[in-house]
Amino acid sequence: MKQFINAKETLVTEAIDGTLRTAGGRLARLDGYPHIKVVVRTDWDRSKVAVISGGGSGHEPSHAGFVGRGMLTAAVCGEVFASPSVDAVLAGILAVTGKAGCLLIVKNYTGDRLNFGLAAERARAQGLKVEMVIVDDDIALPDLPQPRGVAGTLFVHKIAGALAEQGVELERVAEAARRIIKGAVSIGMSLDTCTIPGSPKEERIPAGKAELGLGIHGEPGVEQVAFSSAREAMQMVVERLEPAMGTGPHVALLNNLGSSTPLEMSVLAEALCQSRIGQQIRMLIGPAPMMTSLDMRGFSVSLLPLTEADQAALVAPVAPWAWPGCSSVGEIRVEPLPDGLTPIQAIPSENTETRVFLEHCCTILIDAEQDLNALDAKSGDGDTGSTLATAARALIKAMDKLPLADQTQLYRAIGLELSQTMGGSSGVLLAIFFAAAGDASASGMGPVDALKAGLERIQQVGGAQPGDRTMIDALAPALDALASGLPAAASAARNGADKTATITRAKAGRASYLAEDSLSGHNDPGAEAVARLFEALSG
Question: Can you give the residue range of the structural domain that contains 111?
C-alpha cells in the first residue's frame, strides 16, 4: 500500500521532528536519536509533579501530541507498535523530574509494563519519587486477567495533567489517576485493519462485516459482526459498554482510530447521543483522532463517570494542539429562518391523475439510482442517481402538500421542494426550471411551452447549451418532440443522451473539468436520467 513515508527505519524520528518544527518552540526532544525518542516541554517547572506517558508509535497524536501545559510533561516514543526501551523511559524521567516527583501513565501491555516498571525502579534508586499507574480500560474481553489499555488513557492524561499543573502533590495526583482508571471503560469497532509500514496489509475483515473489540495494535477483535449502518454499529458498542458503566452522568470520549472521515465521526457522535445511554452522557470529548491505530477505519468509545472535580479538570485549558476539548452535550438549537426566506406554501389540492403521474416519475428515478451512480462514477463522484432519488423520495413524501389540481402552482411548488431537498447544481437548476415553468404557465402558456420556458431559463442561468454534454442534450430535444407524444419525446431524449457519449469536450457542468479519456464512450448521467424518464413514461 502506498504511504507518504521515506523509510520505515526513519519513520518515527522524522515524524517527531516534523511535530517539533511546528510546535512553536514549546516542545523539544532529548538527544539520543534514534534509540532514545523523548519529547519534552520546554516551559516545564520542575517544582511540579511531572506526568509522563508513552509507548509504541502509530497511535498519533498520542503520545507526543499531548505533551504540553495541562497534560503530559514528556512522552517516551517507541518504534511503531513497539515499547520504548528502559533507557529511553529513564531518560525521560530524569529529564523532567524534580523534588515533586513524577507519575508514569502506562497502558497495560507487557512490554510497556516491564520497560516503564524497570525504569521507575532505577529512578527510585537514584532518589526520585516515582509513581506508576496501569491503564486497563478495554472491556472487549471481560474475562481477561489483564485488560488492555486503550483510548481511556486520555482521561488519565488530561485529569492527572490538570492536577499537576495546579501544583497538586504526587500522592494525590496518583490517587486521582487510579480512581479514573477504575471508572474508565472503552471498546472499539473497525471496518478494516491497519496498515503497518513495510508490511503487507492483512485483509481479515470481509465485505459487509466489522470487527468489534479489536485492539490498537492491529490485533483481531472479539468477533466479526454484520455491518449495516453507523446507528447499528454504535448500538452494538453501547450494548457492550452499558453493563460496565456506572450510574449517573458520564463523559464520553469518541475516538477516531485513524482513517474514519470527519463526516462519519459526526454521524457516530449523533448515534452515540441518540443511543440508550445518551441521556447519561453530559460531556463529550471529540469526535477526533486521539489514540489511533495507524490508518484503521474505525472508532472507539470510552466512558467515565463524571464528577464536578473531574469535569473541571477535563475542561481546563491546555497547550497541546491534539486535545479536541471537552464540550457539553445538549439539545440541538434551531433558529427560525430569516424573514423573506420562509417559503409561502401553496394551498394543497387533489388530482388523482396528476398524483399517479408524479409518483410514477419519482419511482422511475428511484429505480434508476444505482445505474446512474455507476455511470456518474466514470466521470464524476458517483452521486447523480442518489441526488435524483433523494429528491424523488422527498417529492413523494410531500405529495399531500402539493397543489395537484393547479398546474401553475404545482410547477412552483415542485421547484420550491427541489430547492430545499435536492443537492448540488442540478437541484438548483431544476428548481429554477420548474419555477420558470410556473411563471410561464401563469402568463397563459400551455404545459409544453411552459416547460420549454423553464428550459430556456436554466440555459440562461447555467450557461449550458445543446452539445455541451449535460442533461440539456436530452431534455431539449425531448421537449421539442413532446407535442408529438411521449414516444416521440422518448426517442428524441434517447438519441440526445446517447450522443453525449461521443462528446469528449464538455463545456459546462462538472464534466468540463475532466480529461477527454474520462468522458469518451459513456453517456452523461444527467442526460441518461432524462432519457430513462421519458422512455419509462412512454412505455
Answer: 11-195+207-328
